[in-house]
Amino acid sequence: MITAIAWKNVWRNKTRSLIVIAAVTIGVFAGIFSMAAINSSVVQRIDAAVNEELSHIQVNTKDFRSSADIQNIINDYPEVVAAIESTPGVTGVTGRLIIRGLASTATKSAGVEINGIDVEREKEIFTISKKLISGTGSYFETDTKFNTVFVGEKLAKELNIIRYILTPEAIASLKEESMPSDIVSKVETLQGQRFISDKKFIKAYEKILEPGEIQKYGWKIKEAAWSYREGSKIILSFLDIDNNQTGAAFRVCGIFRTNNDMFESTSLFVPIDELRQLTGMKDGAFHRAIGKLEDNDITDKATTEIRQKLTDYEVLNWKEIQPDLAMMADFMNQIYSVFMVIILAALAFGIVNTMLMAVLERTRELGMLMAIGMNRRKIFIMIMLESIFLSVVGGFAGMAVSEVVIAITGKTGINLMKYSEGMEAFGYSAHLFPTIDPQFFITTTILIVLTGIISAIYPARKALKLNPVEAIRGE
Amino acid sequence: MAVVEINNVFKTYHDTEVEVKAINGVALSFEKGDFAVIVGPSGSGKTTLLNLIGGLDQPTNGEILIAGHRLSELKPSELIDFRMDHVGFVFQSYNLIPVLTASENVGFIMNLQKWPKEKRIARTDELLSSVGLADRHKSRPSQLSGGQQQRVAVARALATHPEFILADEPTANLDSKSAESLLDIMEKLNHEEKMTFIFSTHDVRVMKRAHRVITLEDGKVVSDDVRE
Questions:
Q1: HSE (CB half, 13 Å, CA atoms) of A431?
Q2: Residue in A5, A378, A472 closest to B97 by CB
Q3: Domains recognised in chain B with CATH numbers
Q4: Are A375 and B80 a contacting pair at CB < 8 A?
Q5: pLDDT tens digit string along A5-39?
């Protein structure tokens, strides 16, 4: 009965209640959606780190990381693999040779980490093979007698094996993407010209396009003009097993693109047998064993188990290798709560004001209720419920709107290409796919109910202090 | 036993430095089936006396007994329950709950007392019929005339079979026809169910129908006329 009356009371002054509900809805939506957007960048970063760069667990000799000595191989690799594979939740294991070296072309060179990989096994552990840029070759499927290397786009740019050419096909693709004809006409003036770096290409189109047009279409034009010098070769130099300088020419079999510039510019991949042959290392030599888990959540448990089995080795998981990622994930949860508390605290003042007005308007009625036998506890509960209903209706509406918008933008993504350079320098994608942990909705619901309760305390106390005789008189 | 017994009751208000004796040594008793009005000029203490009888206010001195219970011995929380169980209130400005229908208003106190649903509905229907509003049970107060709202208020006051009904200026906001109609209903309830009514009023129409007229002046009873 009290609940029903409280609910009906909320709708006495529809306009006023709807304004408060709308404010709560917008506040909750703003809180959840912005958190979903920020959260997505962290989740995407962690996914990328785990699936493209680190995997879940890495095992190597205890001083391999600090010394990077080529001779620091895992002596009993089959036993190490068996120990990892027998741990619950492990879905696959691969091994790598990891050598530091120098990648050079005729004009440029860069320090790199050369990863000798088991091409087929890597596909089960990492998704880097799927990051191949279309039209740049393949993931070690090129039939060639040469050594092959799979490099990142950033490194390819640094080594000068990327070109920008607006071919007739590239212009046609821009038309297909519904680019306005006046923009296409301007871009056509660059057709056939060859630019050896993106800086030179950007400089060229900045002369023919307005700043607004560049902001909107620049990245699409760059994407269309991007071209790769097929069959490019790079020279990899490194030390062999006897610490003698060695090296070889490698033909670029494909170029991959991730959202992490640092990873793209420093990591390259070659078949492990080719690397063993060049370094003089024996078959079955590995520097690192890498384990993949079925879920990020079991990382700590699996790490502990593997660590207990492999006491002679350094066993690290992705959180320990890149603690900033783990910290970001935890930090997001904390910041979310703080963010929502601030938003809801601001909204609470609006609810307090509304409830105070509602109590003052109903002084006579509250006096009558006390007179005919409604005790103060029930009146307190009634006012509390009214406030909770206001915040909960607005809160649930906000959560529903957030859910819909997150579902839509989670599929379409939010394009922040304008900031891609800065974001990708830190390994974050400029194309966000908002996502939120369902746990956030539970936290939000609790915070909203608390807001309703806290907002009602002052107005409800005001109601309790009413003297029925004076209240009935309307004083 | 008297339904209401008022023994030498005083009520003094302290308004800044001035002491106001709103009730000044009143001694009265009301028997079951009384149809009594308390009259007097404005400020004579009518409403104060009604508030004291209804347990909404406490006397400064003296004591009030309702159906043998001393009101002064009840704690504030007990007093609220006591009012709900023993006293029916009818106010000048109806004071119905605007978001509830006529039947929900009538059933409100029964709901607070946790009556079973079937019993509550039956009692509500019976009361709305007795005040001639059976066909308006789903109407909200805003959809009823002043007279109809006051009849719903009477039905609400009667809902839990109180010892008596206190009606403070119940006809003050009503036109003649509505006032007469309301008084007909109250008179009928008084005749047929021996329901005790205690009015405070200026309205001569109420005075004409009363069996007992108590006149207050300056907080004192100056006359107490019982009519045959």
A1: 7
A2: A5
A3: 33-43+74-226 (3.40.50.300)
A4: yes
A5: 899 988 988 898 999 899 999 988 998 898 888 88
